[in-house]
TrEMBL record:
GO terms for molecular function: mRNA binding. Sequence-specific RNA-binding protein that regulates translation and mRNA stability by binding the 3'-UTR of target mRNAs. It comes from the Eukaryota. GO terms for cellular component: cytoplasm. Pumilio repeats lie at residues 171-206, 207-243, 319-354, 355-390, 391-427. Residues 150-490 form the PUM-HD domain. Keywords: Repeat, RNA-binding, Translation regulation. GO terms for biological process: regulation of translation. Coiled coil: none annotated. InterPro entries: ARM-like (IPR011989), ARM-type_fold (IPR016024), PUM-HD (IPR033133), Pumilio_RNA-bd (IPR033712), Pumilio_RNA-bd_rpt (IPR001313). It comes from Artemisia annua. This is Armadillo-type fold protein.
């Protein structure tokens, strides 16, 4: 950079000498000859110099015309200045950046290195600063006398969308897919789908059908697909289903997409033909267990369980039943399994319950599996509750001391009925170490629930157990919680 800066900090622009059709080769020769002549003729007056310079500029074809335009030295300086030669400057446009910059056309005759100088001003012009400024998206404000085309990408895009908004849906043929993946383009297409004709639907469906799975997973395209589905007839929906089921697991992958899950639910919502619904269930069946555990996919499975009959959902119910434990111990899967138990009927429901009961103890101690057991008891189907209690028999004391399983024991005490609750309480009282239940962080809540539901002899047995261990309970934080239960009932007069 040292040989490019003069004493005043100016910058010398090197011109291309390979004639490029803009007169730059001739300009270099002319500038060089002028430089030589001014050095050899030191007696020239300033008016002669000005006249020679203006004549030289008039012979160049750099721009259609030379305009009188203020030139900015930089954003930080804030100076606006004009060249000293007839107050004329040449403004050139960089097509890659849309930046207007000043281009010096003469050389300072007082410097042997032919470095740039300005008549009247020794203005600093840093190339590094210019390069940085070229990447800025701010455009220099020129005089109104300069008419140049705008290179703003944002303005161009806005104009394009304004033009497209004036076109009909048919006139957008060939652009539907690309517009659907653009935020503004997708909105534009949805607006034109308010009252589409059958020909419009056919045209749009034809353009997006081969790529409909990609659009369903796209953050913008999924909205167009949802809009399209709502106006499609059964024949159109069948074509969409056939396109989605043509590739194995494609529908499963769509359901696992945060955007695709919405589009898939919209498709299922608008299916009326039983054959089409059966086709969709068959496509979802292989990945039903995986979808049940997926943060996005479980919404699709739950939609099917809630809105379709049990016999229609049988394929996905059987698939989930085969992987019941994996589903029950997952954060999303435990919610799906609860819906499976609630909305299933017949043999498939019996199979689900049997698979759950087979792992009842492990599920009771699981952070998510315990909710499945609680939900099953909460359905208040005596058969299910009785089977669960038989499965947990002999483990109620140990389960009461577990953070998660204690909730299952409480649920059984409260919702199972008097006969079953008596059996559970008597098992707790006759366990190897019943005083431990009175001071345990979790079992003390089980004892409180047992006091609430017990009557008669069972209640008297609980009171006797508490009175025999009153002293250690008073010195224990969790034991005092049980004593506080008695105090609260005394105050309330219960």
């Amino acid at each position: 950079m040292e040989n490019q800066r003069n004493t005043g900090g100016g910058f010398r622009r090197r011109w291309d000498v390979s004639g490029d059709g803009f007169g730059r080769n001739n300009m270099m020769m002319t500038s060089a000859s002028f430089y030589t002549s001014t050095n050899n003729n030191s007696c020239l007056t300033s008016s002669d110099v000005n006249e020679n310079v203006c004549n030289m500029f008039s012979s160049l074809s750099i721009l259609p015309e030379t305009v009188r335009t203020p030139v900015f030295s930089g954003e930080s300086s804030g100076h606006r200045f004009y060249s000293g030669v007839g107050e004329c400057t040449n403004v050139m446009v960089d097509p890659h950046h849309g930046f207007y910059y000043y281009d010096p056309m003469w050389y300072n005759s007082s410097n042997n290195n032919r470095e740039v100088g300005f008549s009247g001003f020794d203005q600093k012009f840093d190339f590094d600063y210019l390069t940085h400024d070229l990447h800025r998206k701010e455009k220099v404000n020129l005089d109104e006398s300069v008419v140049v085309p705008s290179f703003s990408m944002v303005s161009s895009r806005l104009r394009n969308h304004q033009v497209l908004s004036e076109l009909s849906l048919r006139e957008l043929r060939g652009r539907i897919y690309s517009l659907a993946k653009d935020q503004n383009g997708c909105r534009l297409l949805q607006g034109k789908f308010e009252n589409p004709s059958n020909e419009d639907i056919e045209m749009v469906l034809y353009e997006v059908l081969d790529s409909i799975s990609e659009l369903m997973k796209d953050q913008f395209g999924n909205y167009l697909v949802q809009k399209l589905i709502t106006v499609c007839n059964d024949d159109h929906k069948l074509r969409i289903l056939l396109s989605l089921t043509d590739v194995p697991y494609e529908m499963v992958l769509i359901c696992m997409s945060p955007h695709g899950t919405r589009a898939m639910q919209k498709l299922l919502e608008n299916l009326n033909d039983p054959h089409q619904i059966a086709l969709a269930m068959a496509a979802l069946r292989p990945g039903a267990a995986r979808l049940a555990n997926d943060p996005n996919g479980h919404h699709v499975i739950q939609y099917c369980l809630i809105h379709f009959p049990s016999d229609v959902n049988e394929p996905i119910l059987n698939e989930i039943a085969g992987k019941c434990y994996d589903v029950a111990t997952d954060r999303s899967g435990c919610c799906v399994l609860q819906a499976c138990i609630e909305h299933s009927q017949g043999e498939v429901r019996t199979r689900l319950v049997a698979e759950i009961l087979a792992k009842a103890i492990h599920l009771a101690e699981d952070p998510y599996g315990n909710y499945v057991l609680q939900h099953m008891v909460g359905l208040k189907v005596p058969e299910f509750t009785a089977q669960l209690v038989r499965q947990l028999k002999g483990n109620f004391a140990a389960l009461s001391c577990n953070k998660f399983a204690s909730n299952v024991v409480e649920k059984c005490l409260i919702d199972s009925g008097e006969e079953i609750s008596k059996k559970i309480i008597m098992e707790l009282i006759t366990s190897p170490n019943p005083p431990l239940l009175l001071v345990d962080p979790y079992a003390n809540f089980v004892i409180q629930s047992a006091l609430t539901v017990s009557t008669g002899v069972v209640y008297d047995c609980l009171l006797e157990l508490i009175s025999d261990n009153m002293a250690p309970m008073r010195s224990n934080l969790y034991g005092r919680k049980i004593l506080a239960w008695f105090e609260k009932r005394r105050i309330l007069g219960i």
